[in-house]
Amino acid sequence: MPGIVIVGAQWGDEGKGKATDQLGDRVDYCVRYSGGNNAGHTIHVGDQKYVMHLLPSGILNPGVTPVLGNGVVIDLDVLYTELDELAERGAEVSHPLISSNAHVITEFHRTLDKVTERFLGKAKIGTTGRGVGPAYADKVNRVGIRIQDLFDESILRRKVEASLEQKNHLLVKVYNRRAIEPDEIADHLLSFVDRLRPHVADTSRVVNDALDQDKVVLFEGAQAHHLDVDHGTYPYVTSSNPIAAGACVGAGVGPTRIDRVIGIAKAYTTRVGSGPFPTELFDEDGDKLREIGAEFGATTGRPRRCGWFDALVVESAAKANGFTDVFLTKLDCLTGWDKIPVCVAYEVNGVRHDVMPYSQTDFHHATPVYEFLDGWTEDISGCRTFDELPANTQAYVKRLEELIGCRISGIGVGPGREQSILVHDLL
Ligand code: GDP
Ligand code: IMO
Ligand code: MG
User: Which residues bind substrate (predicted)?
Assistant: First the structure.
């Protein structure tokens, strides 16, 4: 009964989409359990490139049932645009199932996301502006709107009105914006009802039944450990729990159903938006990583901040998520450096830290202590076995494995579906 979770080990964009797609043909259900369309998961199939924001990446494998769990926040415009675009491109996709308990993102969440960021000024989080934070805030405040509310018009209208009452005061009096008409929101949501009806299900039961029948269920994490609202670099985080345990909450399965947790880590580090990042590079090496790795956000197009591999960041994710395996992506992007720095400790006010400090103030002031590993010049994008990799590349992987305390079972050597090395079977 394999329940497998895929989790980002850094600050997102590690290549979770590619890893998910890769396992695709052996998977029966692919479940998104947290986040919304703040995610951007890229998949290359032949010469076709797909970017999934809301739909699970497994959708591109016919035979996989895609599921949006209760922990996801759903912008219905985005959902149907994504499905329509896939259909237009002739992709053969299965019918997605949507949890009746999932919350919706509406226009006022998007508006609030943008105005709060503007008001924060220099202290802004650098959100994706998709309304994700305000939708989760409503959920926790118990004024959110769930998918199932759309099927009871009078309840829906009452809930939208209640949810907007306070927000309209805020929008008008504090943010100097126009008030939003509750009926406009409710009418828009109701326009999706007929299309939505066949998709809605008790997805927790569906997934648990599938596990009972020995089906393979892949829980596809979005964002990453260090963007987790509890475990990340708060407040520079997203508003949900992308960590592996979030799969239990966000899909409605018990911890006993998870057999494997695969951490996805880039062979270097990137981050989008604000927040501390000790190994960030501001020199030509940073520009070179951005150029070689095409490090521009899949959702907002923003240039990603780039830096060297930070073993402390990935090690702490490995611990808190219980990684059984790591998939190391974008190793091909490190070709061509004479020496590759890897952060093995921090120095904070003259004190050495061998693990991530629990104090955010210390983390903000952390200076990386680097170990310089030998680089390689050979093109590794065609390698398909570990033995084919140059000796220095193998040594880089082995050293990372030691530092993060978890075996590296997969290695990405290019964006293509086939451009991977499987060291240990992932299923
Ligand atoms: P996700 O959000 O974790 O799914 O990652 P993104 O799709 O936002 O960003 C990862 C980027 O790296 C995408 O453009 C992928 O196509 C690309 N990618 C993934 N794995 C590899 C790899 O091993 N090598 C290279 N060169 N690119 C990769
Ligand atoms: P994937 O799944 C990288 C970041 C934003 C911002 C912070 C909060 O593609 O790895 P939000 O819109 O969630 O309130 O923004 O989180 N962020 C991501 N960064 N990859 C992502 O998703 C992200 N999703 C959110 O840039 O700093
Ligand atoms: Mg991404």
Answer: 298-304
Atom of ligand 1 nearest to the CA of 298: 8
Q: DSSP code of 180?
A: P
Q: Is 95 a catalytic residue?
A: no
Verify whether ligand 1 is closer than 6 Å to residue 298 (CB atom): yes
Catalytic residue among 41, 53, 225, 226: 41
Q: Is 320 annotated as a binding residue?
A: no
Residue 423 beta carbon below 6 angstroms from any ligand 1 atom:
no
Task: Please say whether the beta carbons of 128 and 147 come within 8 A.
Answer: no
> How do residues 321-379 score in pLDDT, each as one tens digit?
999 999 999 999 999 999 999 999 999 999 999 999 999 999 999 999 999 999 999 99
On whether 12 is known to bind a ligand per the annotation, the reply is: yes
Q: The dihedral of CA 382, 308, 397, 267: what is its sign?
A: negative
Instruction: Give the ligand whose atoms come closest to the C-alpha of residue 270.
Output: 2
Checking if the pLDDT of 25 tops 90, the result is no
Which residues make Cβ contacts (< 8 Å) with residue 237, sequence separation at least 6? Answer: 125, 226, 227, 228, 229, 275
Q: Is 412 known as a binding-site position? A: yes
The whole-angstrom distance between residue 255's C-alpha and the CA centroid of its chain comes to 20
Compute the CA torsion angle 275, 320, 399, 8 (nearest 10 deg).
Answer: -60
Ramachandran bin of 407, using left for φ above 0, alpha for ψ from -120 to 50, beta for the remaining angles: beta
Answer whether 73's CB lies under 8 Å from 102's CB: yes
CA atoms 353, 358, 361, 364: torsion sign: positive
Please confirm, yes or no, whether 199 is among the known catalytic residues: no
412 touches ligand 1 (CB under 6 Å)? yes
Of all atoms in ligand 1, which is nearest to the CA of residue 14? Answer: 3
Q: Model confidence over 207-232: pLDDT tens digits?
A: 999 999 999 999 999 999 999 999 99
Cβ atoms 12, 223 nearer than 8 A: yes
Distance CA 6, CA 17 (A): 9
Point out the ligand nearest to the CA of residue 272: 2
Q: What is the mean predicted confidence (pLDDT) over 54-66?
A: 93
